[in-house]
Amino acid sequence: MKEINDIDIKKLYKEACEKIPAGVNSPVRAFKSVNMDYPIFAKSANGSIITDIQDKKYIDYISSWGAMILGHSNKKVVQAISSILDGGFSYGLTTELEVALAQKITSLVKPIEMIRLTVSGTEATMTAIRLSRAYTNRAKILKFGGCYHGHSDSLLCDDIGSGVLTSGLLGSNGIPLQTSENTTTVKYGDIESVKKYLQTNEYACVIIEPIAANMGLVVPSKEFIQSLRKITTETNTLLIFDEVITGFRVALGGASLYFDVIPDLITLGKIIGGGFPLAAFGGKKEIMNMIAPSGDVYHAGTLSGSPIAVTAGLSTLEILEEERQSIYKTLQSKCSFFAGKAREYADKYGVAVNVAECASMFTIFFTDKKVCNLDDAKTSNLENYSKYFRSMLEAGVLLPMSQFEANFIAQSHTDEIIEQSSVAMKNAFKKLASE
Ligand SMILES: *Cc1c(COP(=O)(O)O)cnc(C)c1O
User: Fold this and answer.
1) What per-residue confidence (pLDDT) applies to 1?
2) Which atom of ligand 1 is nearest to the CA of 150?
3) Whose CA is nearest to atom 13 of ligand 1?
4) What is the pLDDT of residues 188-247, one digit of tens each?
5) What does the pLDDT average to over 88-99?
6) Could you confirm whether 264 is annotated as catalytic?
């Protein structure tokens, strides 16, 4: 096979850019924020190792933005998918598999009494919003700066996290004023503002990432989340936990279990598809039964509940459930070790950082400020992040290509891999301090 050199990659990127905007199908993949001339083109992945089209290998901490909690190409999941491929891919009909997944999720995530599957997290949050508006007969929604809830119109205005933030944008052009007027954004953690708005009794819902992972990782106080539940209940406003990242990540029961708070609706994604396009929204029966054709709130999808995606998700959740006694503890201790090393080396070499960690997620913010909201996150030195990112990449460690994303530890990250990554990290901090 012909070897692919840097010139070939540049050529491929040029071809990509001619036919695909910026050459990518999702913005952060362009690697612009870490000042790279062209993106990494992935070829394959196994365990925690990603191989690019030049056959360079990287230890992966993107983990498909959290979806791959078991690591890539988990053997049991591969077997499960392989065993059904000969039976067709999609029928436009209901399958037993969907019932099994619905039973599994409702048994593990208590606030979800009923569930609908979607293809993406964007659809899940979009439909949860629609449902909250129908249920309350109110138009306004409240969300928090730095959170990301997918790219539907009403959730894409003002201080959006993830790729929007990384691109240096606040939201998106192309959203009608009539839509954005109904969306209110307040500072993450600011309960007084929430109270002020909700007391107008005009709000259908409050949607939140109960642990925010799209402005880098920000873990709120339990009191804040509990106060949100209290004030939403008092004002008959629905509380939606967007657990597309935190679901099955921070605990088997997700963030609602972690905080011991029961929201009205929960959205899930990423992990529940095991790397396939699958997401969901669910919650109280009374609300969920408003979905058509039980009720008159419309939601549909040609590929919703794809048998292959459902099989991958189901087998992923089965593994997590079987190993529930050990897996979350092990993931957390690996994460703590790595986050601890970051603090140690930053201290040793005099680099200003604040390291946020929770369960198997962490973010090294290059700032001396503790990060509690988007304003704090924005005090980060992005040049330092970019330098750190590139040093790590040279050492064969692939981090999220943005300061404003979380690193995800997977089951496939062995102690040896973590150790190797922490050595790379030490050198990266040393280099950063000497520049
Ligand atoms: C990724 C993400 C979404 C959007 O999911 P997609 O499948 O990318 O549409 C929504 N909410 C949160 C919290 C996410 O992290």
Assistant:
1) 60
2) 4
3) 244
4) 999 999 999 999 999 999 999 999 999 999 999 999 999 999 999 999 999 999 999 999
5) 97
6) no
Angle, CA of 21, 22 and 26, to the nearest 5° = 80
Instruction: Return the best residue to mutate from 65, 241, 244 for the ligand 1 pocket (most ligand atoms within 8 A of CB).
Output: 244
Helical H runs in 297-414?
307-322, 324-349, 374-377, 382-394
Say whether 375 is catalytic: no
Residue 278 DSSP code: -
Cα–ligand 1 centroid distance for 148 (angstroms): 7
SS (H, E, C) 43-58: EEEEECEEEECCCCEE
Q: Is residue 367 in contact with ligand 1, taking CB distance under 6 Å?
A: no
121 lines ligand 1 (CB under 6 A): yes
Ramachandran sector of residue 112 (left: φ over 0; alpha: ψ -120 to 50; beta: rest): beta
User: What's the gap in Å between 434 CA and the centre of ligand 1?
Assistant: 38
Helix axes 324-349, 307-322, angle to 10 degrees: 80
156 C-alpha to ligand 1 centroid (Å): 12
- The answer to whether 387 is a known catalytic residue is no
Helix (H) or strand (E) holding 82: helix 75-85
For atom 10 of ligand 1, the residue with the nearest CA is: 149
pLDDT in tens, 147-181: 999 999 999 988 888 888 888 888 899 999 999 99
Choose the weakest-confidence range: 35-39, 227-231, 334-338: 35-39
CA dihedral 348, 351, 353, 355 (to 10 degrees): -40
Whether 210 is in the pocket of ligand 1, judged by its Cβ within 6 Å, is no
Distance between CA 210 and CA 228 in Å, rounded? 10
Number of CB atoms found within 10 A of residue 54's CB: 15
- Selection from 305, 279, 267 nearest residue 130 by Cα: 267
